[in-house]
Amino acid sequence: MLIEKEVKWSMAHRLMHHKELCQNIHGHTYKAVIGIESSVNMTTGMVMDFRDLKNKIKEVIDDLDHCIMVNKDDVFLVKMLHELATKVCNKLKYRISDGEPTAENTAKYIYLNLDVLDVAYVKVYETPTSSATYAGDENE
Q1: What are the beta bridge partners of residue 94?
Q2: Helix axes 50-64, 103-113, angle to 10 degrees
Q3: Does domain 2-65+103-134 have CATH number 3.30.479.10?
Q4: 118-132 residue pLDDT tens
Q5: Domain ranges of the chain
Q6: Is the pLDDT confidence value at 139 over 80?
Q7: What is the pLDDT of residue 90?
Q8: Contact predicate 71/23, CB 8 Å
Q9: What is the DSSP string of 46-64?
Q10: What is the mean pLDDT of residues 38-56?
Q11: Which of 63, 66, 68 is nearest to 25 (CA)?
């Protein structure tokens, strides 16, 4: 059986290798659909209680919500954000990604950080009409 939970958050990012506007810091209201695949518990009649699922997803999404996500190779920006966070604005929230902070890599990040669940896939919408889905691809 497959169940899904949808969540939304706001996050800024910069794509340092993009040739056009996305090389600038900008933000999106993201939406993710998380698919959980497991057998139905015969006693409860559920794969999982949606409230429990929401709480497990919330831990990962809260870490991304209202942060600036940047590529670890964007050395100048990483240094600047660190200095701002430590010297000017201790509430500045930023995260460093292993690669470009794209919808594809964000979907993979969420998938890998929900490892306590039977995650079938994570679909991240960067805009209402543009999304990327990660399903634990061996080649990624």
Answers
A1: 68
A2: 130
A3: yes
A4: 999 999 999 999 999
A5: 2-65+103-134
A6: no
A7: 79
A8: no
A9: SSS-HHHHHHHHHHHHHHH
A10: 94
A11: 68
Q: Which residues contact 120 (CB under 8 A, 6 or more apart)?
A: 2, 35, 36, 37, 135
Q: Cα(122)–Cα(83) distance, rounded to whole angstroms?
A: 33
Q: What percent helix, strand, coil does the chain show, rounded to 5?
A: 30, 35, 35
Distance (Å, rounded) from C-alpha 2 to C-alpha 131? 20
Q: Global pTM?
A: 0.90
pLDDT tens-digit map of 81-91: 999 998 888 78
Which structure tokens are listed for 22? 């996305």
Output the six-digit token pair for 17: 């290798």
CA atoms within 13 A on the CB side of 66: 3
| C-alpha angle 41-114-39 in degrees, rounded to nearest 5 | 20
